[in-house]
């Protein structure tokens, strides 16, 4: 009898070792190695992507065929996916527990099924009764939507072959297991095997497939990084669990841009699209208080106006406290250093708190001037005019650098009734006059503070 060969696999990154190690040399995580039986793959297990050509061909001889797309009937999701779903694509959906991934996908299933396409919803976490209860609450009642509570990959493959669906949804990939592999569901080997099987099904039969992935406490998708490399699209469902707003971002998309953002609101009857996020995010802006400013950001092709708040108060301890929600903490510290050095604002003994209203996370440099202005307003206790929007990237010398899509930002501000906008002076070149809104070009943060706060 031949000896059973085993190997140790890091459950965080997929690194393989012949012996157990306390710390993974690849990802530097501790106690992540699990012993698994080594499986030998035959040639028949491999999925051959190129069946027509078995030799290299010139790029000029390759015929380009436009990928056919179909809509999910959810505009915000279509925007993130690049205009709709591509036949045979494999989409990985990640997000924190309880954020609404299953709610989103059951709604997507229902909308696609209403168009006449056959949808198979596979759940390894919920029973048919549980799915039906949620579906009843969300008014899901399409005859073309089939639910299948199962996590055995062999049984799932047979049912897919029998039903021949147009769209498959797997909730979640961590619960699916192959009986041919001895390791437990959720292990690196099982996740890789399950994903490769669904990739083979998607590409071979042209079935659009969604797979849900759990996330770790650090916020990244659980399992090896190769999971993200195998799929065509990776989208993250973001938002605070106890906040009503949810955002969808694509961090990888072979069929479109990765800069788009979809915005939803979680209500009793499920997720509702928000066509104009700017109006919602600034609708409850307070009046007569300092430290509140409206900034303009662009996510993909969509300009959005967001309220940025700053609270500055004397510290009660030797070391002042700094906190930032929705923007990069290190960037805020850098901008406060610029304020102290270039303007002379003495905030080294002040606690500073920055918050982006609505639970949205923004990383765009065009937010810099808004952070500077809100901190200065909070420190000097001067209210910023309600009709003002601030845009600009700030350098270490205090200069205001130009930003992209300036016309879109200005037109969005005008549409929502703002009368005054502060932009980098470099963006004035070539900018046509826009009636109904005053545009102020500034070169440095001193000029910007003079315009916004009046000196």
UniProtKB/TrEMBL annotation:
<dbReference type="GO" id="GO:0003684">
    <property type="term" value="F:damaged DNA binding"/>
</dbReference>
<dbReference type="InterPro" id="IPR020568">
    <property type="entry name" value="Ribosomal_Su5_D2-typ_SF"/>
</dbReference>
<protein>
    <recommendedName>
        <fullName>DNA repair protein RadA</fullName>
    </recommendedName>
</protein>
<comment type="function">
    <text>Plays a role in repairing double-strand DNA breaks, probably involving stabilizing or processing branched DNA or blocked replication forks.</text>
</comment>
<dbReference type="GO" id="GO:0000725">
    <property type="term" value="P:recombinational repair"/>
</dbReference>
<feature type="region of interest" description="Lon-protease-like">
    <location>
        <begin position="351"/>
        <end position="455"/>
    </location>
</feature>
<dbReference type="InterPro" id="IPR020588">
    <property type="entry name" value="RecA_ATP-bd"/>
</dbReference>
<keyword id="KW-0479">Metal-binding</keyword>
<dbReference type="GO" id="GO:0008270">
    <property type="term" value="F:zinc ion binding"/>
</dbReference>
<dbReference type="Pfam" id="PF18073">
    <property type="entry name" value="Zn_ribbon_LapB"/>
</dbReference>
<dbReference type="GO" id="GO:0140664">
    <property type="term" value="F:ATP-dependent DNA damage sensor activity"/>
</dbReference>
<dbReference type="Pfam" id="PF13541">
    <property type="entry name" value="ChlI"/>
</dbReference>
<dbReference type="InterPro" id="IPR003593">
    <property type="entry name" value="AAA+_ATPase"/>
</dbReference>
<feature type="binding site">
    <location>
        <begin position="95"/>
        <end position="102"/>
    </location>
    <ligand>
        <name>ATP</name>
    </ligand>
</feature>
<dbReference type="GO" id="GO:0005524">
    <property type="term" value="F:ATP binding"/>
</dbReference>
<dbReference type="InterPro" id="IPR004504">
    <property type="entry name" value="DNA_repair_RadA"/>
</dbReference>
<keyword id="KW-0234">DNA repair</keyword>
<comment type="similarity">
    <text>Belongs to the RecA family. RadA subfamily.</text>
</comment>
<dbReference type="GO" id="GO:0005829">
    <property type="term" value="C:cytosol"/>
</dbReference>
<feature type="domain" description="RecA family profile 1">
    <location>
        <begin position="66"/>
        <end position="215"/>
    </location>
</feature>
<keyword id="KW-0862">Zinc</keyword>
<keyword id="KW-0238">DNA-binding</keyword>
<dbReference type="GO" id="GO:0016787">
    <property type="term" value="F:hydrolase activity"/>
</dbReference>
<dbReference type="InterPro" id="IPR041166">
    <property type="entry name" value="Rubredoxin_2"/>
</dbReference>
<keyword id="KW-0346">Stress response</keyword>
<dbReference type="Pfam" id="PF13481">
    <property type="entry name" value="AAA_25"/>
</dbReference>
<keyword id="KW-0067">ATP-binding</keyword>
<keyword id="KW-0227">DNA damage</keyword>
<dbReference type="InterPro" id="IPR027417">
    <property type="entry name" value="P-loop_NTPase"/>
</dbReference>
<keyword id="KW-0547">Nucleotide-binding</keyword>
<keyword id="KW-0378">Hydrolase</keyword>
<keyword id="KW-0863">Zinc-finger</keyword>
<feature type="short sequence motif" description="RadA KNRFG motif">
    <location>
        <begin position="252"/>
        <end position="256"/>
    </location>
</feature>
<comment type="function">
    <text>DNA-dependent ATPase involved in processing of recombination intermediates, plays a role in repairing DNA breaks. Stimulates the branch migration of RecA-mediated strand transfer reactions, allowing the 3' invading strand to extend heteroduplex DNA faster. Binds ssDNA in the presence of ADP but not other nucleotides, has ATPase activity that is stimulated by ssDNA and various branched DNA structures, but inhibited by SSB. Does not have RecA's homology-searching function.</text>
</comment>
<dbReference type="InterPro" id="IPR014721">
    <property type="entry name" value="Ribsml_uS5_D2-typ_fold_subgr"/>
</dbReference>
């Amino acid at each position: 009898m031949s000896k059973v060969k085993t190997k140790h696999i890091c459950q965080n990154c997929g690194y393989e070792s012949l012996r157990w190690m306390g710390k993974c040399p690849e990802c530097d995580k501790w106690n992540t190695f699990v012993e698994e039986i080594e499986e030998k793959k035959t040639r028949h297990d491999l999925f051959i992507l190129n069946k027509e050509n078995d030799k290299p061909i010139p790029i000029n001889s390759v015929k380009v065929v436009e990928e056919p797309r179909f809509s999910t009937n959810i505009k915000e999701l279509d925007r993130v996916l690049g205009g709709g779903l591509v036949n045979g694509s494999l989409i990985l959906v990640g997000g924190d527990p309880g954020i609404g991934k299953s709610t989103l996908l059951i709604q997507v299933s229902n909308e696609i099924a209403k168009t006449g396409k056959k949808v198979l919803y596979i759940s390894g976490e919920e029973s048919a009764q549980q799915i039906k209860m949620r579906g009843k609450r969300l008014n899901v009642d399409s005859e073309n939507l089939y639910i299948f509570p199962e996590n055995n990959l062999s049984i799932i493959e047979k049912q897919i072959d029998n039903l021949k669906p147009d769209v498959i949804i797997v909730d979640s990939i961590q619960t699916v297991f192959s009986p041919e592999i001895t390791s437990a569901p959720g292990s690196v080997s099982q996740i890789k095997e399950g994903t490769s099987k669904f990739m083979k099904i998607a590409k071979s039969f042209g079935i659009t497939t969604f797979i849900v992935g759990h996330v770790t406490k650090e916020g990244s998708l659980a399992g090896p990084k190769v999971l993200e490399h195998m799929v065509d699209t990776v989208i993250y469902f973001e938002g605070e669990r106890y906040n009503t707003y949810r955002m969808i971002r694509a961090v990888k998309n072979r069929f479109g841009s990765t800069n788009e953002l979809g915005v939803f609101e979680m209500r009793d009857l499920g997720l509702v699209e928000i066509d104009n996020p700017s109006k919602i995010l600034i609708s409850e802006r307070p009046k007569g208080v300092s430290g509140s400013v409206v900034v303009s950001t662009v996510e993909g092709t969509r300009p959005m106006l967001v309220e940025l708040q700053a609270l500055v108060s004397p510290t009660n301890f030797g070391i002042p406290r700094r906190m930032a929600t929705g923007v990069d903490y290190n960037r805020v510290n850098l901008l406060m250093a610029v304020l102290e050095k270039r303007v002379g604002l003495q905030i080294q003994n002040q606690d500073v708190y920055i918050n982006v209203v609505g639970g949205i996370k923004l990383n765009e440099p065009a937010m810099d001037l808004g952070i500077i202005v809100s901190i200065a307003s909070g420190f000097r206790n001067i209210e910023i005019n309600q009709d003002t929007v601030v845009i600009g990237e700030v350098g270490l010398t205090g200069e205001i650098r130009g930003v992209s899509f300036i016309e879109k930002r200005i037109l969005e501000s005008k549409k929502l009734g703002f009368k005054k906008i502060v932009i980098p002076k470099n963006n004035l070149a070539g900018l046509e006059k826009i009636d109904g809104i005053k545009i102020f070009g500034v070169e440095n943060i001193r000029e910007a503070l003079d315009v916004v706060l009046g000196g």
